[in-house]
Design goal:
Layout: E1 6-12, E2 19-28, E3 35-45, H1 48-59, H2 65-90, E4 96-99, E5 102-113, E6 116-124, H3 127-134, E7 138-140, H4 143-148, H5 158-165, E8 171-177, E9 180-186, E10 196-202, H6 205-215, H7 224-227, H8 233-240, H9 255-258, H10 260-273, H11 277-299, H12 301-304, E11 311-316, H13 323-333, E12 338-342, H14 353-366, H15 374-377, E13 387-389
Parallel strand pairs: 1-4, 4-7, 8-11, 11-12
Antiparallel strand pairs: 1-2, 2-3, 5-6, 7-13, 8-9, 9-10
Helix pairs in contact: 1-2, 2-3, 5-14, 6-11, 8-11, 10-11, 11-13
Bound molecules: adenosine-5'-diphosphate and magnesium ion.
Magnesium ion binds near residues 13, 14, 16, 19 and 178.
Length: about 400
């Protein structure tokens, strides 16, 4: 199939369960990589009842089949409404939609179940609901194909990172800070098989949980609470001993590692050292910054060195709006030779990047082109991702 220029909407809702981001991207075939132009992007907070339902399903030890079926459908409605509002506001005409869906369960490593061992994943959000509402095809369910090719099904954003940011002279690190923090590192002049990508650990997830528990706020706006606290060094040191941080990439994390249970223990540990809730927020923020910087130092730094003029460390995701976190990051990354920036400095608003990635992945699938970067997911080969729901 000859690749076509298309206008594609990408829909992303991440582990923060804060809402839906939509990016509308014009995608044209290019000589070595597709060319992307961002036409529009919008963010839509989940209504409180939906956010509660999503968080409950993610954290549940048990739930009901009816609950999950309804949630799957309800998310489809939320995605359809988000796209409808975006195309209305910006008067764009879409050719295709790519929907990541809401990860309710992600198990990258094989485990025994009903007599067989396998890994598995589930992103909810009924694609048919979206296709019916908008009247154009929807690509969804991107992760299983990569997992069946031996990968972890994540991260899938590296294809976009490479297409937009790979540079002949500069090393580039694309650091997304959503609920989980993940990075894509692209050495200067590197081919896609030299891309390094993995989850460093918690992004906003622990900070958000503490903000809710200690301040009844969904997140620490601009990092204001953390800015008034002091990092509790013994708590941070103990937290850094978590075995997740010793795992070699490829590695992925989620609420399974850093969800509600983790946050409850973290709060208890902080309260043994300080009565001031701001100190707990500062410590959780430092955990994110420290594990990002350590991940870079341990697994990336040595591979970035050759033949480059420097490294741009480009942050996206809601965490880029947390000033305290960004200051802590700058302080740790500067000595490692990185210049901290936000994706918006490179023309891509911080909320739009992941959504744009799923627009590109949908475009790839539509043309029967692979979407995974095997160096990033650990897959044995590039594969076509997901499935198409025709309107
Ligand atoms: N102004 C802000 N100040 C601090 N943190 C923010 C701000 N805006 C968003 N965030 C953080 O970003 C999170 C959402 O980021 P996002 O990139 O959408 O993550 P995900 O992909 O996991 O949904 C929020 O839960 C919050 O922690
Ligand atoms: Mg989000």
């Amino acid at each position: 199939m000859n690749a076509k220029t298309m206008t594609v909407a990408g829909i992303m809702s991440g582990t923060s369960a804060d809402g839906v981001d939509v990016a509308v991207v014009r995608i044209a075939p290019g000589k070595t990589r597709p060319k992307l132009t961002l036409l529009a992007h919008e963010g839509f907070a989940f209504p409180a009842a939906l956010r509660r339902a999503v968080l409950a399903a993610m954290n549940a030890a048990s739930t009901s089949t009816a609950e999950l079926a309804r949630l799957n459908w309800r998310l489809g409605i939320a995605y359809a409404e988000a796209v409808t509002a975006t195309i209305k506001r910006h008067e764009v005409k879409l050719d295709l939609i790519g929907c990541h869906g809401q990860t309710l369960y992600h198990q990258p490593r094989p485990a025994a179940y009903a007599g067989r061992r396998f890994n598995c994943t589930w992103q909810a959000g009924e694609a048919q609901v979206i296709a019916a509402a908008i009247g154009i095809p929807v690509v969804s369910n991107f992760r299983p194909a990569d997992m069946l090719a031996g990968g972890q099904g994540a991260p899938l954003v590296p294809l976009l990172d490479y297409a937009l940011f790979a540079d002949a002279k500069r090393g580039r690190v694309l650091q997304n800070i959503g609920g989980i923090a993940n990075l894509t590192a692209i050495p200067a002049a590197a081919a896609p098989d030299r891309v390094i990508a993995f989850d460093s650990g918690p992004g906003n997830m622990v900070v958000d949980a503490l903000a809710l528990e200690l301040f009844s706020k969904p997140f620490d706006r601009n990092g204001a609470f953390a800015a008034q606290g002091a990092v509790l060094a013994p708590v941070l040191t103990a937290a850094l001993r978590n075995p997740y941080f010793q795992l070699k990439p490829p590695r992925t994390a989620g609420r399974e590692q850093f969800g509600r249970e983790y946050a409850a223990k973290f709060i208890a540990a902080c309260q043994r050292h300080s009565k001031k809730p701001e100190d707990a927020l500062a410590t959780a923020t430092a955990l994110t910054a420290e594990t990002i910087a350590r991940s870079y130092k341990q697994f990336v730094l040595a591979k970035m060195k050759a033949g480059q003029s420097g490294v741009d460390y480009i942050v996206s995701g809601g965490g880029a709006r947390n000033h305290t976190l960004m200051a802590m990051l700058a302080q740790r990354l500067k000595p490692l030779g990185c210049e901290l920036a936000a994706s918006v400095d490179f023309g891509l608003p911080v909320e739009a990047k992941e959504a744009a990635a799923f627009a590109l992945l949908a475009w790839q699938t539509w043309h029967r082109l692979p979407g995974n970067v095997p160096a990033a997911t650990g897959a044995a080969r590039p594969v076509i991702l997901g499935q198409v729901t025709y309107a």
